[in-house]
Amino acid sequence: MNTPQDSSLGREVSYPSQYDPGLLFPIPRAAARAEIGLDAAALPFVGHDRWHAFELGWLDNRGKPCVAVATVQVPCSSPNLVESKSFKLYLNSLNSARFADAEDVRSTIASDLSACAGVAVQVTFGLPALRETPRGESIDGLDVDIDCYGPPRAAYLSADPADVVEETLVSALLKSNCPVTGQPDWATVSLRYRGARIDRAGLLRYLVSYREHAEFHEQCVERIFNEVRQRCAPQWLEVEARYTRRGGLDINPWRASPEIVAPASIDRELRQ
Length: 272
Hints:
The protein has 5 helices and 12 strands. The protein has an 8-stranded mixed beta sheet with strand order 5-3-2-11-10-9-8-7. Strands 1-4 form a two-stranded antiparallel sheet. It is elongated. 36% of the residues are buried.
């Protein structure tokens, strides 16, 4: 079985002493998508899950340690997502392995992740630049009362069809919980769209209603995209959550209307 409960999440696991691609644990996306009414054969979005790896090391042919950072991009069209703890354990399994050169490491990681995800995964050395200010307008300073922290309440979302705008709204208040361990996941979420003006107070209440919700990062972003799309009917929509790091990895799920071919920006938040 490939469910979160079958993975290494929430279990005491010894760190690997040798290279082992079998540590990578795939979780099928289809079940979670079905729960929020998404047809896996006709997704209303394109996108990817972009990982930043800060703790990557290996040995060269002479046994000298090498270190690097890397960016990994998994298409949202993949049948599986890569469970995060298994990803961390896998990267640690490279620490004592010898490789001919950096390209050998990069291609090995890309091959192993592609086999886990079920599609070609891109791996490049280096990280996007840090961005000091949000690319958009923060809604976190709104003077609102909030008393719902879960489950997510889509009824908070609304838009004014008499006022068509194109804007990017940002909140650093997105928090959800791991569905297996209950550990908190923190993120800055940006919502870029064109269409009826979205009610900002309602959007903030909606995002905060994830606070006690248990779901993986990728699934939260797909839920946000789908519920905003259904409730507010934008002409086009782009949603990205930039989660803070845990165990040397952070993840940035991005989902957008099919006509959007690339994110508006590729960078990292200061919290990352």
